[in-house]
Amino acid sequence: MQISKRTNARTTNPRAKMQVVRRSLDTLAADKLREAIVSGGFEPGERLTEEDLAALVGLSRGTVRLALRQLVHEGLVTQEPFKGYAVPSLSATDAAELYTLRNALEGFAARLLAEHIDLKKAQTLDKAFSEVVSAVQQGDRRRAVACDFELHMVIVRLTGHLRLETHYALIAQQMKLYQKMVSQFLTLDDYVELHAPLILAIKEGRSADAERIASEHNTDDGEKLVTALTQQEESSRKTG
Q: What's the whole-model pTM score?
């Protein structure tokens, strides 16, 4: 997780060089921490200290602090007064809110794209879906989850609806955590079978069907995750 502190030798203004490097390191640190959180490198509820993370990534505490603030904005890290930073635990309420909001946003996106589909957009959509199919055929669950996420990002981007894309981006990183947890209720084949009808409806311009499929296809596994988390929370209250 070490990040190299390389500088641009062609930059003649030392102050400008420092600004570019610092901004780049902030971004790299946020990327590394984000990847570690989403992939399970940190446990839900685990405390994150600037000092420990700075030592882990080989950067200053100030740089790590800025990276953490970015992850707080994305919902991947929480910050509490006098307690510092922590990896959030996904609750039953969180899961319910995420899958229902996802259904609403993705249903809207699917309808918009179906209404304005063209050959170029259809080819881009096919390419994104083919990545999902390839991951499933190779038996790579981790890649299938990542390609599933990217497929929905592509659908949103292809709508050309900037405010929709902005709002979807606000929950995108939290969605990665959600998708990782909900994958326990899905077989590898589900990643193809759940998306194939949606892709076909969009490409054929069947906007109503596309909206319905997109707004429903997260519900079954979403409800299962909510049920599982609710049971865990009830058990924890009883034993606590």
A: 0.76
In this prediction, residue 115 carries a pLDDT of 98
Q: How many alpha carbons lie under 13 Å from residue 207 in its C-beta half-sphere?
A: 10
- Domain spanning 14-86: CATH 1.10.10.10: yes
Best CA proximity match to 147, nearest among 70, 98, 138, 91: 138
Instruction: Give the number of other CB atoms < 10 A from CB of residue 14.
Output: 9
Tell which CATH classification among 3.40.50.20, 2.60.120.10, 1.10.357.10, 1.20.120.530 matches the domain 92-236: 1.20.120.530
Task: State the number of CA atoms in the 13 A half-sphere of 41 facing the CB.
Answer: 13
Reduced to 3 states (helix: H, G, I; strand: E, B; else coil), residue 65 is helix
Extract the residue ranges of the chain whose pLDDT is less than 50.
7, 9-11, 14-18, 20-21
The DSSP bridge partners found for residue 79 are 85
